[in-house]
Amino acid sequence: MSEKEKKQETNISRRSFLKGVGTGTVAATVAPAILVSDAETAEAQTDGAVSTAKIQLNINEKLYEIEVEARTTLLTVLRDGIDTGGNNVDLTGAKLICDRGECGGCTVLVDGKAVYACMMLAMDTQGKQITTVEGIANGDNLHPVQEAFIKHDAMMCGFCTPGFIVSSVALLNENKKPTSAEIKDGLSGNTCRCGTYPFIFDAVETASEKM
Amino acid sequence: MASWGEASQSRLIGKRIARLSGKDKVTGKAKYTFDINRPEMLYGRILRSEVAHANVTDLDLTRAEALPGVKAVIPLTEVGRKLRYQGQEIAAVAAETDDIAKDALRLIYVELEELPFVVTEADAMAEGAPQIRDDWKGNQSNPGINEDGDVDAAFSEAAVTVEATYHTPVQTHVCLETHGHVVEWTDENNLTVWASTQAVFGVRNDLARRFELPANQVRVITEHMGGGFGSKFNAGVEGLAAVRLSRMTERPVKLMLTRKAEHLVAGNRPSMTQHVKAGATRDGRLIAYDMRGYGTGGISSGAGFNAPYVYHVPNRRTERFNVAVNAGNQRAMRAPGHPQGAFAMDSLMDELAEKLGMNPLEFRRINDSSEVRQAQYTLGAQEIGWHRRNNVPGSGTGVKKRGMGVGSGLWGGGGGRGTQARVTINADGTVEAVTGTQDIGTGIRTVIAIIVAEELGLAPTDISVKVGDSGPGLPSGGSGGSQTTASVAPVIKTAAAAAKQKLFEHVAPLLQAPVDDLRIGTGKIYVASDRTKTVTWKQATGQLGQESISEGGNWDQELRQGGVAGTQFAEVEVDTQTGHVKVLKIVAVQDCGLAINRLTTESQINGGVIMGLGQALLEERIMDPQTGRMLNANLEDYKVPGTFEIPEIKSIVFDTHRKVTGVGEPPCIPTLGAIANAVHNAIGVRIRELPITPDKILTALAEKKA
């Protein structure tokens, strides 16, 4: 082991993290708290120890065969996945925004329930019906929620819009005539930064009248 | 002289028209930079400092390079250099998958010698604080001092004076699509870049300069953009790193910032602290103003704010300076300097009015020289029901108390030269409008279609609008300063008019009429002096044969105007047991000049109000003085408004004149003061420090009781 490797061994110990914080002078590694466990993961990767599995997923009524790691999220499969035939899944409507189940940008339906695809492992969605924003319309016929979003301008930059569409559809599937308080509650798991909320509420109300 | 014509004659302009990108956005088909997947594309990631201030003493990339799937690792700092804030770049990797890129970052060995740091303004200004900039004395810039009139004499004449300190914290942009790029070298000398940017041509020129390429060999594309509030104008460290990684690997590279990095390094609105003293006469004239204030823009400067603001003060002295801290740099954020200045000024106005025993709206009327805002005060007061306001602040009964407040703002937004555009009419009747602006969600794509369609008698959906691409070589400025519409609209309008004129020349022989006797009707061209003589649009364009018409436009001063006024009224309900503030209603009366699309203009006003509400009640970058880190660099702990915070918003597009202006920024300005004043009116105590969180309300109520 070289001198540097020895130093690194030391630097990823919990003790050196504690030493590194607060004193202001002791050498510290970057993100030492995370390094402890994650260096091992990374090392395992180096040894080729991470195993993959082929799974089948039913997305928008189409079957995809995909090789995934245990850690692969449903969102990663949708956006970056490549099927065993070498084709990109390329369902990029769902967005990764907060990366921790807070903003709803990655909302999809799994067996009809709205879920955050960033918080769901791909493995766990085998045998379930996955519907993304791309699967909400019936061919060229837009869903009433989609029609209403366009009519009311319930979007600006539109980056959060796929998540709001899917959440709105899930809400109306469960509650055909939500009150305005129920609309706010039903969409409370989604975040918009442009501030389109008032028109989103209007759109969901309009859609509810059409369903 | 060019004009937009009378409202009564407009078929499309000023109406509510659905945005052209709507269908793509609701179906998930709209491709943002983050969604671009190229063949053989690699994933880039950046390793960042977790400490606020350090010397780099060792950096070893070899173990990361050896990880299977890693294709390139580059240093973004070097041994001997200083890292000056959490999040500063250390190295970048490109790998076959994003997960491998994450793994690779953990294998990069960095040794840092930590240096003393300061991350709060108070610590930076404290006696004996470590100096963190070499070019300043201490951590403060030289103050800028301005004086007008005779301040001391004015104070001696004042019947009432107020002395107070107002503070707004650092706010971050929180663009939902983080900053980032997908980079592809199409060959050795040609670079294509998908960028999440507010300035397609700005990024093109930036990259061309840095990589010593002719500008026309760099193509920047931004078809859709996931949120830009002033921070996305350059390629940035991440963009340059992506280009280098792509060059090294000869493969496309996608490199988007993480959510955490977005908070740390992608810009923020500087903080503001101002100690202000002001005086007014018994009859309500604001005559004296003395302000000493500062803010932090991180390690850089640029923490300016407007003070005094909106209301006229004849005698004033201001002193302001920057405070440096070890934190990421500020960048322009939606109406830079205005919202924080407005919060302080509107709070101050209310405090003076209260001392005078005057209705705060009356006090504003006396000191506001804007005729537009005077009219807006009347309309806004009616809409909110100002007569229901507590005459005595805090006089409501019960646990939940209601109150009302008002705030004001102003902005420029008159556009500028520099946009080139082309409107093309083809023989098959199709029409194309091309320019190098970008639609960052404001709806400029639809505005362009409306203008061309109005001019040519077509529907907006008939116009194929191409923006967000430097490829056609038709430059336009960055989308900032609320300048886009006023810069682009005149050029599009004159280009469409020129194309129409050319079409008339082709059609005149067919209609056997002179060119100047031809007019556009809906889907047709007719002869003004004999309306029975008419051809359909398709018949007309059929005259072109193998040709097509393609015309440029020019920036016509007469079609645009800068300078907008706005005012907002807020009604809130404060729970005196929990300290929770619920905004019930906001009335936003916004001068919009000529609103080309009333629907998207209303969207912009709603959005401004909601961002202002976030700044008033929720948003704050929290720095830990012990570790030098940001404690809430995520979307859980950094609170932006969600569905439960949204009040009833009455967005009023206040028509003033028939010239185009910009409204992206102004509606976020008056909200803060209106809410803060409403809170005071509800509970009778004033919160002078944003955000107005429950702890501050409860503390203030407890102090009042004691």
Structural summary, described in words:
The complex is a heterodimer of chains A (211) and B (706). By secondary structure, chain A is of the alpha+beta class. Chain A has three domains: 1-39, no CATH class; 52-132, Roll (Ubiquitin-like (UB roll)); 144-210, [2Fe-2S]-binding domain (DNA polymerase, domain 1), CATH 1.10.150. Chain A contains eight helices and six strands, in the order ααβαββαβββαααα. Chain A has a five-stranded mixed beta sheet, covered by helices on one side. The radius of gyration of chain A is 22 Å and the shape is elongated. In chain A, 50% of the residues are buried. Mean pLDDT of chain A is 84; it is low at 6-38. With 706 residues, chain B is of the alpha+beta class. Chain B has three domains: 7-30 and 415-559, Aldehyde Oxidoreductase, domain 4 (2-Layer Sandwich), CATH 3.30.365; 33-115 and 179-256, Aldehyde oxidase/xanthine dehydrogenase, a/b hammerhead (Aldehyde Oxidoreductase, domain 3); 268-413 and 561-705, Aldehyde oxidase/xanthine dehydrogenase, molybdopterin binding domain (Aldehyde Oxidoreductase, domain 4, 2-Layer Sandwich), CATH 3.30.365. Helix content of chain B is 28%, strand content 25%. Chain B contains 17 helices and 28 strands. In chain B, the strands form seven sheets. Chain B has a seven-stranded mixed beta sheet with strand order 3-5-1-13-10-11-12, with helices on both faces. In chain B, α9 (338-356) crosses α10, α9 (338-356) runs parallel beside α16 and α15 (598-617) crosses α16. Chain B is globular.
